[in-house]
From TrEMBL:
GO terms for biological process: carbohydrate metabolic process. It comes from Candidatus Scalindua rubra. Its cofactor is Mg(2+). The record marks S114, K145 as: Important for catalytic activity and assists the phosphoryl transfer reaction to Asp8 by balancing charge and orienting the reacting groups. This is Beta-phosphoglucomutase. Belongs to the HAD-like hydrolase superfamily. CbbY/CbbZ/Gph/YieH family. SUPFAM superfamilies: HAD-like (SSF56784).
């Protein structure tokens, strides 16, 4: 079946927010005296805020109550949102603009499928808030990637079946979500060596729309 829609993950695919997520978590971990490093940070890619916090707390000796955990996640989010103020359209990753324009020219539908609750803010800051035919994000879902929910909602909002969609992902959890949802998957960036994906590329500048639609 030919591809009629492309669902893009946001963080790490459209825009590089990874460093800001990392800095937000690092500040929180330092304040709580919890060991945290870039290797642990890699495990947070694609997973929800609360699940990310659980991964960070694996290194803590203290047991936090549910209320305390919610406050910790809020604190990190405030640090992160402060950093997000620096994001501009110049932070859109290489090749993304061209790919989006070419897909539109060919009448292929485009959507966002992101675990982030900050997705609407980020899209606005980079000037792409009216660019997509549909968006599905952390505010719409009960289960975060690797659960397929976020992509299935995006496909439904595009009025397409999963078989008609291609997912673009930079996280292992997202590649898995795309496969489980019955969609084809293009892995980029950090996920480019993930063997479960149907195709892969270093970034969106290293693949043509013909190659994307030919999977
Ligand atoms: C994903 C990121 O896109 O969004 C994760 O890859 C992040 O690292 C998740 O934890 C949730 O983001 P937010 O903005 O809702 O805290
Ligand atoms: Mg991502």
């Amino acid at each position: 079946m030919s591809i009629k829609g492309v669902i893009f993950d946001l963080d790490g695919v459209i825009v590089s927010t990874d460093e800001y997520h990392y800095q937000g978590w690092q500040r929180l971990a330092d304040e709580e005296r919890i060991y945290f490093d870039r290797e642990i940070n890699e495990r947070l890619r694609g997973v929800s805020r609360m699940e990310s916090l659980e991964i960070i707390l694996e290194k803590s000796d203290r047991v936090y109550s549910q209320d305390e955990k919610i406050k910790l996640a809020e604190r990190k989010n405030n640090y992160y949102r402060e950093l997000l103020k620096k994001i501009t359209p110049d932070d859109i990753l290489p090749g993304v603009r061209n790919v989006l324009e070419e897909l539109k020219r060919r009448s292929i539908k485009i959507a966002i499928g992101s675990s982030s609750k900050n997705s609407p803010t980020i899209l606005e800051r980079i000037g792409l808030d009216t660019c997509f035919d549909a968006t599905s994000d952390g505010n719409d879902i009960k289960n975060s990637k690797p659960d397929p929910e976020v992509f299935l909602i995006a496909a439904k909002r595009l009025s397409l079946s999963p078989e008609e969609c291609l997912v673009v992902e930079d996280a292992g959890a997202g590649v898995e979500a795309g496969i489980t949802s019955g969609m084809r998957v293009l892995a980029v960036g950090s996920a480019k060596d993930d063997k479960r994906a149907h195709i892969s590329a270093k970034d969106m500048d290293s693949i043509t729309v013909d190659e994307m639609l030919d999977v």
